[in-house]
Structures are given as C-alpha cells and as structure tokens.
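In response to reviewer comment 3 from the previous cycle, which asked for concrete evidence that the modeling workflow produces usable outputs, we include below a single protein chain processed end to end. The sequence was submitted unchanged, and the resulting structure tokens are shown without manual editing.
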Amino acid sequence: MISVKDLKLAYGKRVLFEEVNLNFTKGNCYGVIGANGAGKSTFLKILSGEIEPNKGTVEMTPGERMAVLKQNQFQFDEETVLNTVMMGHTRLWSVMKERENIYAIDDFSEEDGMKAAELEEEFGEMGGYNADSDAATLLSELGVKEEFHAVLMKNIPSNFKVRVLLAQALFGNPDILLLDEPTNGLDIETISWLENFLADYENIVLIVSHDRHFLDAVCTHVADVDRQKIKIFTGNYTFWYESSQLMARQINDKNKKTEDKRQALLDFIARFSANASKSKQATSRKKALEKLTIEEIEPSYRKYPGIIFQPLREVGNQVLNVEKLGKSIDGRVLFKDITFSVNKGDKIALLSHDPLAVTIFFNIITSETIADSGSYAWGSTVTHAYLPVENGQYFNQEVNLMDWLRQYVPSHVADVDEPFLRGFLGKMLFSGDDVLKKTNILSGGEKVRCMISRMMLQNPNVILLDQPTNHLDLESIQSFNEQCSDYKGIVLLTSHDHTFMQTVANRVIELTPNGIIDRLMEFDEYLADERVKALKEEMYK
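The workflow returned the following structure tokens.
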C-alpha cells in the first residue's frame, strides 16, 4: 500500500495540492485525471520522491518496490538496451554488479566467498538467473526486436527508446508502478499488449494518460485532481464521466422525486457493472463497481468547452473525389494509387503505418502540398475546415486572441463586433481578460482551442482532423469527440485516440505504399478483421 497524508504543495501563491489524504491499495489500477496544469504529473513525482512536498508524507509498505516510467530518453545512452531494462530493478542490478566485481578479484579470499554466497542467495530470490531472458521477452513483446537488445541506447531509433523505458518500468514485477503517458509513441498493437498486461497486473498501478480507451481498459478507479484536492472514485474513466454527468443532471432536476433519482443511479451502476463483466480484462473493475454505493458518486464541476460545428449548407452529391494520388519524400513512398470518393454521411478514419502519410495526404487535399501524381476535386457545395497536427504557422504574429480570430471571419458574416468574437472564444473557455492574451505566450492546448474556434467560424460541412486530441485535456477531448459523433457533416479523421476513432468513424481508409484499403465498418471491426490483416501484409511488402 502507498499512503498520502496531509499533502501540500505550493509554488509561491499558486497552490497545487492542499490537505490531500489518500490510500492506494494492492490489486487496483488508478487513472490520475485532471485539467492541464492541475498537477497530475507533479503528483506522481511526489509519490516517487522526485519532488518534495511543502507539507505531508508519502508512506509505502516496508519492503515494497516502486518503479517509475522514466521520461529522459538520453539518460541511458551508454548502456545496452537489455541492461537498461534490468536497471529498472535497482536492487537486482546492484547485486549483479557486486557479484561481477567479487568474481573479478584475482586473490579471492574466504570473506569474498562468504559475501558471494550471500549475494547468490539474494540474486536467486529476486529472479536474477532469469533476468536476461525476462528482460528480452518483455522487450520483444513491446516490439523491440532481438537485434537491438545488445545495442547501446544512443544507437537505437528514437521510437524504440520509449518502449525500452516502458520495459524498464515493468521489469521485475514492481509492487507500485507509476506510469506517466505510457502509450505515447506506441502503435495500436503495442497499446493493446500493454492493456492486457496491466489488466492482469496484481499490484498497485497509477497512470496519467489522455487515452480514454486505455484508461477504460485498465483502470479500476479514477483519482481526480481538481481544485487542489484529489478524490478517488470507483470505476474507469467512462464510468466516472457518465456517472458524474448523470449526478449533475439529477441535482439540477428539481421536479424529479428523490426515489426516482436514486433508482436511476442504481440502474446506471448495474448497467456498467454488467458491461464490465463482458470483458476478460475487467474482473477487478466489476468487483469494484458491485461494491459501489450511490453516495460515492459526485457531480463533476469541470468546465467543458462548447464545440459546435454548424454547417451553413448541406453538402451536395459530390464531396471529394481522389484519383490515383501518390506522394514520396526523399525516396520513401508514403502512398500511391490512392483512389476513392467521399459520400454523404461518411465519417472516415484515415490510417497508415507511416503517420506522415496521413498528414501529407491532408496537406495535399487542402492545397498546402503538391502531389507527385494523381488528382483530387472538391464538390462545389463543400466548405471545409482543417485542424492540422502542426499549427505554428498560424501563431507567428504577436496579437491578442480577439484580433487573431478576427482575421479568420468568413466573408458571409456581416457583424464582427466584440461580443461575436468573445462568443466563439468563450465556447473554448477563453473568458474575461483571457481574450486579450497574446498569441506568442499560448500553451499547446490553448493554441489548439484557438484553432477549433477558427474552425467553428467557418460553418463547415466537412471537417479534416489531423491528431485532434494532441495537447488537449480530457474535458476538451470528450467535448470534441461528442461533437464529431453528433456532427451532421462529413468528417475525415486520424487520431491516436482509439475512442475518438471508434465512436466517430463509420468507414476506414488505410493509405499504403501499394494502394488503398477501404472498408465500410467501424474502427474496432477493422482492427479485428482477419481479411484486412492479411491484405495489410500484402500492401506493406
């Protein structure tokens, strides 16, 4: 167990935590959630001892071992990949090195022999004789091939470094596991492996992540960081979100009888508990939900942005036609022979093994990049709005948000006064003096929210989204996702957010170096389709 008592942390007048008291217990996985800047990552650093609080204590059960997902990819540059993983178990690594040093002594004394025997016993108890093979297995399961295991960290591809550091944290079955954004840089298959690994994990896990599908798959509880406090709630992220929204509606419903409200909440808990039991990963979540009482459900006081895309007109029969489109960069074929038409009602998830391929495709159909071959044509009724993955070019000028947004008001809008602009910025939670902020001091999340305001201004009937969840907090992601699901226009979307892709898309198109895979199905169905898997092997040869 790990206990937090009377925790306080403040930087000057800014108080992050005040009188936080929590217990994290064995067998549970806690998703640490909260708005950007609320202190989620800082809280994990306090638990790991990296940051000292102003007040309070963090206590672990004696003898338990904590492992932390390291963020510095250059920390182990001079170590081999395999050694870097084993270094995650610091005591085991220390014993290994001490053994090696003793056995390297030329004049081996009786005292050295006794010490070596002690180390051998401890080494065996910690599983040291299987350490190499265990570390190698973990690396392979995370997609780091055996050919890299003996290579120095500084010489492996950067996307593999993330996986090695993740293997390091998981190595040796730690009693307490702290993971800050563990899915960053992982592909869908590796994330799925990690979900299964953590769902079966029997010790304590705390995770900071913006990936709702991942949180839903592994978490038994949510630790909500809000208003300088941290509260623990039973259930995964979706349960926390929907139950808190339901409770808020119940509180606001003055006309509904108390017993009716109570029954609605009981029905909600029962439904989620039943759904949890259908998942092979969810035994602990089901047990947790069955013990839940109504009194544990609280309304969320978070602010959710108002993302609303209102098409000025409906799209006609011709939306977008793409004919034999192809593009290569520095001899690397991103895609070729891409031919398809977008139809009314389409919400398309775009995929590729090469993430640059989808970005370049978006840039081509928005006239920011020229294709090597082929053509595309938008329908005459289309008004499209684009959210690019990189938005730096839109924030080169040092102007306030009002003036920044004003330059993107379309010509059909007659009255562009202050209340009009404040309305669009306010929907994205820029209120009061926030609208006078200069664009050069905005955070990544604030820039994305500005870009969404810009999109809403266009009244588009087609929206193009390249990694729309990047830099956003869970509240903004949730609102964005719900709007895209309800949106009456056309959506072309690529995202690392599994839930976003699954809940929005009704068609999947994969761009490959040898053509296109196009299926009218949901995202999860596409990932599970054996015929698609076989076709992928051919297309990526």
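Residues 89 and 307 are 46 Å apart (CA to CA). We consider this sufficient to address the reviewer's concern, and the full set will be provided in the supplementary archive.
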